[in-house]
Request: fold
Amino acid sequence: MTWIRTVPLSEADGSLKKALDDQKSLYPKEYATPVHPTDGDGAQIVASHSLIPQALYHAFATFGSLMSPDLPLSRRQHEMIATMVSVTNRCVY
Reply:
């Protein structure tokens, strides 16, 4: 398995904390608890982007925006699409 250096939340500077908070605010409330949390309570996939806060925000804000309840798809349809993408990419999350 590849090892990627990450910045723990306890060591995060203002720009990383802002990126984490801003992208998290776009996600549905059901996503508040990570399935595979890190020591800092965040998700491992998010932590892997912690060295570049702008990239972290844009990468995960995209998904948050796509899950918006303002879009014409239902929450059930959003989850079905996300599940199929994960299965296709052989992801465990």
